Amino acid sequence: MAYLQDDAHVLGAVRDAAFDGVICHMALMDIPDLAATIRSVGRVLRPGGWFVFAILHPCYHPPPSGEITAADGSIHRTVSGYFTEGFWRSDTRPGPPGKVGAYHRTLSTYVNALTDAGLILERLAEPPATPSLAARRPVWREVPAVLIARCGKGP
Q1: Which of 25, 27, 146, 153 has the fewest CB within 10 Å, making it most exposed?
Q2: How big is the CA angle at 43 (ends 27 and 30), to the nearest 5 degrees?
Q3: What are 74-107's pLDDT values in tens digits?
C-alpha cells in the first residue's frame, strides 16, 4: 500500500481514471473548495468507480446549532442558520469545528457538487449514535450526527 499527500482540490499527482474507489472520511467539511475537490474525485475515478464519504450531518451542525436543557431535564438539539454557508469556528463547540473550524454547507450543496462532477448518488445513511456517544451526549439518540453517502461514476 502506498500513501500519497496531495492537494484535494486538484489531486495533481494522480492521473485520470487511476482508482476504482475513493474514500473521504470526515474531511469534506474541512476543505474550502468543495466543488473542485469533488471534480478531482470524479476525474481520478475509473468509469463504474465509487466514492464514499462521511461528513458531520449538515442539517444538525450549522454554526449556531447547539443543545438546550428543558425544564424536565431532557436535552434537545437546536438548529438555526442552516442556509448560511461558509467557514465558521466556535470557542464553545467540541471537536474540529470548535478547534480549527469547518465549512458549513447545505445538503443540496453537497448533492449538487456530486451531480455537477458526474457522480451519481446511490445510497445515503444517517447512522444512530454509537453507544458511547449516546451515553455522553443523549441528544444524539434523537438526530443523526453523521451523514454517509455512496456515489458512483457512470460508464
Answers
A1: 25
A2: 15
A3: 888 899 999 999 999 888 776 777 778 899 999 9
CB 6 within 8 A of CB 14: yes
Amino acid of residue 119: L
* Model pLDDT, residue 138: 85
SS (H, E, C) the chain: CCCCCCCCCCCCCCCCCCEEEEEEECCHHHCCCHHHHHHHHHHHEEEEEEEEEEEECCCCCCCCCEEEECCCCCEEEECCCCCCCEEECCCCCCHHHHHCCEEECCHHHHHHHHHHCCEEEEEEECCCCCHHHHHHCHHHHCCCCEEEEEEEECC
User: Burial code of 78-100, b = ≥16 C-beta within 10 A, e = fewer?
Assistant: eeeebeeeeebeeeebeeebeee
